[in-house]
Specification:
- The chain has about 250 residues and is mainly β.
- It has a single domain, classed as Alpha-Beta Plaits.
- It has helices spanning about 35-45, 50-55, 65-70, 130-135; strands spanning about 1-10, 10-15, 25, 75, 85-95, 105-115, 115-125, 155-160, 165, 175, 180-185, 195-205, 210-220, 225, 235, 240-245.
- Strand 12 (about 195-205) and strand 13 (about 210-220) form a beta hairpin.
- Helix 1 crosses helix 4 (about 130-135).
- The chain is globular and about 55 Å long.
């Protein structure tokens, strides 16, 4: 299977969760598919939510999602043990309409990911070929960012490669849908500390309100077994990574 592979990173990232309490805005602990499609769409030049809001009746989805929702991707978290450090950032929004309280100053607290790094794989088709060509030639229509325009995205180590489908494997190096694999909690290597990251992450937008639809994902260095014979796993022969696409 032909794919484009690239490293995606930044100093910070903020993939906002829709659930908010009185004081904090929280982030997902990892990048998710909708965010990656947004980055791809910005580079190609597809429009987002502001464009959609101009005509909700005819624009069921943002343009980037409508064009790219069938794309297949794999995500390998490069941060140690699949975990990206989070820190809470506090800043003031002194725009007059930001707060109804005295002083018109809104104190905003956001949870940011620190120094996130991923290796992203995108299966090539007619539309994603455009994306691959753009990043291979270091071009973009709109500036890509990691969830919010405060967080610039660095795209490096871009390469178009062939990956092989494999039937025999005992590890998955990318994020995978938890329900598709059984994780073996025992480790054969005594010097290899077992770790596992799990989280519900967005994978789709619904048609009515464009709200997130979720699936549970896992990243681990432990052995895994497939729960379904129809699940496909691919190997990047250069990095020796076993990949699950979704």
């Amino acid at each position: 299977m032909r794919v484009v592979r690239f490293k995606l990173s930044g100093k910070t990232a903020f993939f906002k969760k829709p659930d908010v309490n009185t004081y904090y805005y929280f982030t997902y602990g990892n990048i998710h598919k909708i965010a990656i499609l947004g980055i791809m769409g910005s580079i190609i030049g597809f429009h987002g939510y502001n464009w959609q809001s101009m005509d909700f009746k005819n624009n069921i989805y943002p343009e980037f999602y409508n064009k790219l929702k069938s794309s297949r991707i794999a995500i390998v978290t490069l941060n140690s043990q699949g975990y990206i450090t989070k820190k809470v950032q506090t800043f003031n929004n002194s725009v007059g309409y930001a707060s109804t309280e005295e002083g018109r100053n809104l104190i905003v607290k956001e949870q940011w990911l620190q120094n996130p790094e991923w290796m992203i794989y995108v299966k090539l088709d007619e539309i994603t070929e455009q994306f691959a060509d753009m990043i291979l030639h270091k071009r973009a229509i709109f500036l890509p960012y990691l969830g919010k325009n405060d967080h610039f995205a660095d795209i490096t180590k871009v390469k178009s490669i062939d990956i092989e489908k494999i039937d025999n494997f005992n590890k998955i190096h990318s994020l995978f849908e938890t329900e598709c694999f059984k994780v073996d909690r025992y480790q054969e290597e005594d010097d290899d500390i077992a770790w596992k990251y799990t989280e519900y992450l967005p994978v789709e937008l619904d048609m009515e309100l464009n709200q997130y639809k979720y699936k549970h994902f896992t990243a681990t260095n432990m052995n895994v077994k497939s729960n379904n014979q129809n699940i496909e796993v691919y190997k990047d022969l250069e990095t020796k990574s076993n990949l699950y696409f979704f």
